[in-house]
């Protein structure tokens, strides 16, 4: 699983907002181009990005292994025909190039994921998106990071409890209903306790945010992000 | 270090409750991506079910907000997308159409069932309305899902439908049935 790991790479030292600018800029240009020459350039860019973030190529590919299987299906299905000659390789070229750019997009975002802690991402959201919406999104992102392992443990416990009571022998709709009812009611019970705790601790629209600093490399990264985004128009 | 002199602007109690429920529902959505339940013989996740539940129990405003939170957290590095993956690349990748229209699905479900911001008890809503809401939400998510797949992988729309949408239909029909059963059980109160 590809997640944040503490390190001292250049990517780890960058502000999350500048890393997001590069990632979004790259996404814009990658989605706009499927020719071979831009894809070669994108490949070089992504390899440098992974190296800057200290992510191994195989590690990143392994992290997205499930997505890669579905991605590979597009060119494979495209080259199949319902009659002779059954397989037309030339039909797979365009989907293969298009799928490859999606792979590059996944690898590019791996650099952000590996180098940015949840706390910084939350602060970036709250500082970038204005108003109460930005505050709620930022705080909500922090809560999601915190509560996913808890809710996952709840779901696994529910499934274990069902299994020891031979719940696995029940029909699929009944099993999904039970998981849904129990999972949602437990999550809402946790949410109600959480809301009480947040109000007791003066949950406010203007909390003190973690400090973020924009240094010279961040301005360079932002310029790179804008350049990449503009290159989508070429 | 600077000292801030501003006063604390407290969040209203009803907003805190709805917000906390939305955040936990987003966490449930993320956790459900890692729990594979054998559905129609194929291991599937319960994410579409959580989209339905978001609209049904959080309504047309907080329901989509919960799903947007899920997407934001996933983009920013929480391992909550399919297979424990994360990052912007997943949201803009081959299944981006499904992911990006999940909030629309939740909003449509909530809007059709609750017909406004004041939430009703889903158990008291006429059953065909619930079914209509789930069908409309699923249709919109599927339409955007396979069209996006066709565009991003540059393949024919029919091929995209066969790869990305067709295998999911049996599982999602069962999830719709499960969502109706959850509503009929009357065990959960809408926020």
Question: What is shown here, in short?
Answer:
Chain A has 234 residues and is mainly α. Chain A contains ten helices and no strands.
Observed structural traits:
heterodimer; A: 234 residues; mainly alpha; 0% strand; flat; B: 191 residues; Arp2/3 complex 21 kDa subunit ARPC3; 65% helix; globular
How much beta of chain B, percentage-wise? under 5%
Shape of chain A: flat
The CATH C-level class name of chain B: Mainly Alpha
* Oligomeric state: heterodimer
Low-confidence runs of chain A (pLDDT<50, min 5 residues)?
none
The largest sheet of chain A, given as strand count, sense and whether it forms a barrel, is:
none
Shape of chain B: globular
Overview of the structural elements:
The complex is a heterodimer of chains A (234) and B (191). With 234 residues, chain A is mainly α. Chain A folds into 2 domains: 10-116 and 213-231, no CATH class; 132-200. Chain A has helices at 10-13, 16-32, 36-53, 57-63, 65-79, 93-115, 118-128, 131-164, 172-200, 216-231. In chain A, helix 3 (36-53) packs parallel to helix 6 (93-115) and helix 7 runs antiparallel to helix 8. The longest helix of chain A has 34 residues, at 131-164. The two termini of chain A are 36 Å apart. Chain B has 191 residues and is mainly alpha-helical. Helices cover 65% and strands 3% of the residues of chain B. Chain B has helices at residues 13-32, 47-75, 88-91, 96-114, 127-153, 157-165, 169-185, and strands spanning 37-39, 42-44. Classes of the chains: A mainly alpha (234), B mainly alpha (191). At the A-B interface, helix 2, helix 5, helix 6, helix 7 and helix 8 of A face helix 1, strand 1, helix 2, helix 3 and helix 5 of B.
């Amino acid at each position: 699983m590809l997640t944040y790991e503490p390190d001292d790479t250049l990517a780890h030292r960058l502000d999350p907002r500048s890393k997001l600018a590069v990632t979004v800029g790259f996404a814009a240009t990658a989605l706009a181009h499927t020719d071979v020459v831009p894809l070669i350039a994108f490949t070089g860019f992504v390899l440098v990005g992974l190296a800057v973030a200290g992510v191994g190529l195989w590690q990143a590919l392994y992290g997205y292994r499930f997505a890669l299987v579905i991605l590979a299906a597009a060119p494979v299905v495209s080259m199949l025909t319902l009659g002779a000659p059954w397989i037309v390789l030339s039909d797979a070229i365009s989907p293969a190039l298009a799928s490859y750019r999606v792979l590059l997009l996944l690898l590019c975002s791996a650099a952000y994921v590996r180098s940015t802690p949840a706390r910084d991402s939350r602060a970036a959201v709250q500082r970038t998106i204005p108003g109460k919406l930005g505050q709620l999104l930022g705080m909500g992102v922090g809560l999601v990071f915190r509560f996913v392992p808890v809710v996952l443990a709840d779901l696994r416990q529910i499934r274990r409890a069902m299994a020891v009571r031979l719940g696995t022998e029940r029909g699929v709709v009944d099993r999904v209903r039970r998981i849904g009812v129990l999972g949602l009611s437990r999550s809402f019970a946790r949410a109600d306790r959480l809301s009480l705790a947040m109000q007791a601790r003066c949950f406010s629209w203007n909390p003190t945010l973690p400090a973020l600093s924009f240094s010279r490399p961040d301005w360079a990264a932002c310029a790179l992000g804008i350049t990449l985004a503009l290159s989508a128009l070429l | 270090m600077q000292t801030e002199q501003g006063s604390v602007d407290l969040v209203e109690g009803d907003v805190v409750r709805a917000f906390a429920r939305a955040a936990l529902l987003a966490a449930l959505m993320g956790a459900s991506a890692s729990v594979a339940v054998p559905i129609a013989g194929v291991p599937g996740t319960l994410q579409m079910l959580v989209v339905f539940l978001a609209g049904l129990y959080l309504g047309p405003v907080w329901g989509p907000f919960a799903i947007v939170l899920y997407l934001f957290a996933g983009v920013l590095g929480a391992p909550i997308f399919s297979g424990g993956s994360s990052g912007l690349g997943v949201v803009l990748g081959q299944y981006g159409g499904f992911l990006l229209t999940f909030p629309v699905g939740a909003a449509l479900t909530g809007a059709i069932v609750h017909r406004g911001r004041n939430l009703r008890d889903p158990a008291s809503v006429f059953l065909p309305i619930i079914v209509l809401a789930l069908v409309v939400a699923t249709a919109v998510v599927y339409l955007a899902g396979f069209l996006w797949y066709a565009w991003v992988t540059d393949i024919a729309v029919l091929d995209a439908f066969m790869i990305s949408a067709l295998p999911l239909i049996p599982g999602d029909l069962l999830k719709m049935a499960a969502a109706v059963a959850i509503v009929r059980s009357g065990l959960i109160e809408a926020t």
